[in-house]
């Protein structure tokens, strides 16, 4: 047997995170894709912040959410807000830490068979569900069955589609057998566990550090520290996740003392970066995210435009992504190349973002049969004008600003775009049903480069392959990469994937963001990671807020 990891700190508070974080040289079986998106996938390159003030009782921590959760059911949770809550209430066999290393959680150790087809977990004793029942191997089997049930979201099931069986030979032993070697296997087990003894899944019952208290739609989700958590109770007595959909609203709430942290947009950052009064109250963290912003062009034949790769390529060439960042958000990102992030070891530096080249875009559209026969400034083909809706979510004005920029850029090459902003829940329904022509999204990435959920043909209907890409070569490379534990071979296969995505342009990969987060100096223990503020262990477990403003510890 190949011994992989044995936990040494179980039942104690996890080791603190200190020192600079590695964001590109993390060496493990892989590097790259999931939970995101948009809210909590705030990635990072900073050490653990200084401890906070010592006086006064510990107070609830208030943190903003950009939208209500779409669901409190961990199985159905595919949006970032829902999954973040599931991870706070729940716990998993393993979890990523701030340095993107997999660390033991409910599992105290794990091992692989020599042929990498059998993964065995040993569960730690003393882990309990919030109703007091003990967590056992049967719960792991139950969770796997839920995630692979016919009605489970396809992007959940894809993480387990090479699993042959999951067995519980003893209450504290789980044996997972795979049909073939499966390199991303451990990362799949970061999903929160679900109790076998409870049929209903809402409100959530977890075994994690936070107890679900209530959800006030449109206002907040409230979680309470679990005093019986196996690692001890979180430092904050309560976590109040405030639903604040707009960046300006979040910043106003931060300045008013209603929340303890908020992201800064470029205009806000320029206004406060040299303000002594602001600096006295808040610390600003700058960090890179495992995340990318993009527009998916529905290329499945459901519309007359985007099945043609020349048209999709023209869309990217017509949008001055670098110019947008330079003029609107200097220092807040870099143009994206593909869905693989440059901070990941499998990123191909030989590829460059497509340039801004409206002349070449116009030439490609002409090659594809478009022309302005009536002289109205809008291209036509077969008597039909090139006009479509760009669907976006109403989670922030920044989305609207980017969409308006895209609209203006495409107008200059003869393409008419109508922006369709949708409330978050409606937006999610449209995504699930494939009811859009083009959609603007953000995507958080997991530390494993397996992007089967994003690009495999099996995910083109009902999954998160929102472009509807179906490509036999890509399917083959993704499947081969999942089946090898050789990091060099995986990197080679992902370079092939990137080159093919660069060629096909199923998405216009807009940018990889750099974020700035303002944090109240009354709040200590908030660390950042490429996985975000909430998306790694220990995350909010170490947060602490006290009212006093005396000298720091």
In short:
By secondary structure, this protein is an alpha+beta fold.
Structural class: alpha+beta
| Most strands sheet | 8 strands, mixed
What is the subunit arrangement here? single chain
List segments where confidence is low: pLDDT < 50 over at least 5 consecutive residues.
1-54
Q: Distance between the terminal alpha carbons, to the nearest Å?
A: 46 Å
- Estimate percent helicity: 10-25%
Strand content: 15-25%
**Strand count:** 24
Gyration radius, in Å: 23 Å
> What is the helix tally?
15
The overall pLDDT, averaged over residues, is: 88
CATH topology of the domain at 291-513: Dipeptide-binding Protein, domain 3
Inertia-based shape: globular
CATH superfamily of the domain at 291-513: Dipeptide-binding Protein, Domain 3
- CATH architect. name of the domain at 291-513: Roll
User: Would you state the CATH class of the domain at 291-513?
Assistant: Alpha Beta
Describe the secondary-structure layout.
Elements: E1 2-6, E2 58-59, E3 61-65, H1 80-89, E4 94-96, E5 102-104, E6 107-112, E7 118-123, H2 137-147, H3 154-157, E8 163-170, E9 173-178, H4 185-188, E10 210-216, E11 220-225, E12 238-243, H5 247-255, E13 261-263, H6 266-272, H7 276-281, E14 282-288, E15 291-297, H8 309-317, H9 321-328, E16 333-335, H10 358-367, E17 380-381, E18 384-385, E19 387-393, H11 397-411, E20 416-422, H12 424-433, E21 438-444, H13 452-455, H14 472-482, H15 487-504, E22 507-520, E23 523-524, E24 544-546
Parallel strand pairs: 3-12, 19-20, 19-21
Antiparallel strand pairs: 1-6, 2-24, 4-5, 6-7, 7-9, 8-9, 10-11, 11-12, 13-22, 14-22, 15-21, 15-22, 16-22, 17-18, 23-24
Helix pairs in contact: 8-10, 14-15
């Amino acid at each position: 047997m190949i011994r992989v990891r044995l936990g040494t700190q179980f039942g104690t508070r996890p080791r603190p995170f200190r020192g600079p974080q590695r964001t590109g040289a993390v060496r493990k079986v892989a590097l790259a894709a999931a939970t995101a998106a948009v809210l909590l996938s705030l990635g990072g390159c900073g050490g653990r912040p200084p401890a906070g003030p010592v006086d006064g009782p510990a107070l609830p921590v208030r943190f903003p959410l950009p939208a209500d959760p779409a669901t409190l059911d961990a199985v159905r949770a595919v949006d970032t807000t829902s999954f973040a809550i599931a991870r706070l209430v729940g716990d998993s066999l393993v979890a990523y830490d701030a340095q993107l290393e997999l660390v033991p959680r409910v599992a105290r150790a794990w091992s692989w068979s020599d042929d990498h087809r059998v993964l065995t977990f040993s569960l730690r004793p003393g882990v309990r569900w919030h109703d007091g029942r003990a967590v056992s191997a049967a719960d792991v089997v139950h969770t796997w069955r839920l995630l692979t049930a016919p009605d489970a979201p396809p992007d959940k099931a894809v993480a387990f589609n090479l699993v042959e069986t999951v067995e519980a030979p003893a209450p504290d032993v789980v044996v997972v057998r795979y049909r073939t070697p499966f390199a991303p296997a451990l990362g799949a087990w970061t999903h929160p566990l679900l109790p076998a003894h409870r049929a209903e899944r809402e409100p959530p019952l977890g075994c994690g550090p936070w107890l679900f208290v209530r959800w006030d739609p449109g206002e907040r989700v409230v979680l309470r520290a679990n005093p019986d958590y196996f690692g001890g109770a979180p430092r904050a007595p309560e976590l109040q996740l405030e639903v604040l959909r707009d960046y300006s609203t979040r910043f106003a709430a931060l300045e008013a003392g209603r929340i303890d942290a908020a992201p800064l947009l470029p205009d806000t950052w320029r206004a406060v970066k040299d303000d002594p009064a602001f600096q006295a109250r808040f610390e600003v963290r700058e960090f890179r995210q495992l995340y990318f912003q993009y527009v998916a062009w529905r290329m499945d034949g459901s519309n007359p435009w985007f099945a043609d790769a020349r048209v999709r390529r023209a869309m990217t060439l017509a949008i001055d992504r670098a110019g947008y960042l330079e003029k609107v958000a200097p220092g807040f990102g870099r143009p994206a190349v593909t869905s693989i992030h440059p901070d990941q070891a499998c990123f191909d530096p030989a590829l460059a973002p497509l340039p801004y080249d409206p002349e070449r875009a116009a030439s490609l559209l002409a090659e594809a049969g478009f022309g302005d026969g009536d002289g109205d400034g809008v291209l036509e083909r077969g008597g039909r004008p090139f006009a479509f809706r760009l669907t976006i979510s109403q989670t922030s004005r920044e989305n609207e600003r980017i969409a308006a920029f895209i609209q203006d850029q495409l107008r200059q090459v003869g393409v008419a775009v109508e922006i369709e902003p949708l409330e978050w829940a409606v937006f999610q329904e449209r995504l699930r049903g494939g009811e859009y022509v083009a959609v603007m999204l953000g995507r958080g990435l997991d530390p494993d480069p397996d992007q089967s959920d994003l690009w495999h043909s099996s995910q083109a209907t009902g999954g998160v392959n929102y472009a509807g890409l179906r490509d036999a070569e890509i399917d083959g490379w993704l499947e081969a990469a999942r089946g090898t534990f050789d990091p060099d071979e995986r990197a080679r296969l992902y370079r092939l994937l990137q080159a093919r995505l660069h060629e096909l342009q199923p998405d216009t990969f807009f940018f990889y963001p750099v974020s700035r987060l303002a944090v109240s100096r009354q709040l200590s223990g908030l660390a950042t990671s490429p996985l975000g503020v909430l998306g790694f262990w220990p995350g909010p477990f170490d947060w602490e807020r006290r009212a006093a403003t005396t000298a720091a510890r």
